[in-house]
Structures are given as C-alpha cells and as structure tokens.
Design goal:
The protein has 104 residues and is mostly helical. Helix content is 93%, strand content 0%. It has one domain. It contains 3 helices and no strands.
Length: 104
C-alpha cells in the first residue's frame, strides 16, 4: 500500500511537470502572436505557471519531509522493540522445533 501511494505521488509529480512543460511551450508559441489579448493571455499564463511551479516545489518538499519522518519513526520503533522482536522470533523457533519433534 505504501508503495502504491509513493507510485501515485511520483506519477502526479511527473504529470504536473509535463503540464508545466506544455504550458511553457504554449507560452513560447503565444509570445510570437501580437495584440492586446495575446499580451493579457501571456501574462495570465505566466502568472499561473509561476504558481504551478511553486506548488510543485512545495509538494515535492512535503513528500520528502513526510518520507523522512516515516523512516525515522520506523527506525525508532525497531530500536525500541528490538529485544521484543528477538524474543518473539526465539519463541516461534522453539514452538516450531517442538511441533516438528512431535511429528517423528
């Protein structure tokens, strides 16, 4: 499930980057056109493009920060419960050994 969420976020970022690239290409095309309407359109696209880039940058930073927090929490859990995990593994091993011994 975590992998699916990560894949979805990466796809969203790639799609968003594609939209930004397409918008920049459109800006270049529109910049060749003249007239007042074209200038208004160029200004509006430029403003929206800057907002989109800022949003993407913030989103990527947020994803990285959340990933680091999750990694730290996992690391802390493993360190705090290491002996419990070792004990559980030993207990399961002994139980399996006893069950296999009784089969013979």
């Amino acid at each position: 499930m975590a992998r699916t969420a990560k894949d979805s976020k990466e796809k969203l970022i790639k799609d968003f980057q594609s939209v930004i690239a397409d918008t920049e290409e459109l800006m270049k095309f529109v910049s060749n056109e003249g007239g007042g309407k074209a200038q208004v359109l160029r200004d509006k696209i430029d403003q929206n493009l800057k907002l989109a880039k800022d949003y993407l940058h913030d989103f990527e930073g947020s994803v990285v920060d959340k990933s680091k927090i999750a990694a730290r929490a996992t690391d802390e859990y493993v360190h705090e419960n290491a002996w419990r995990t070792v004990g559980l593994a030993i207990g399961v091993g002994i139980l399996i050994g006893l069950l296999m011994r009784n089969r013979d």
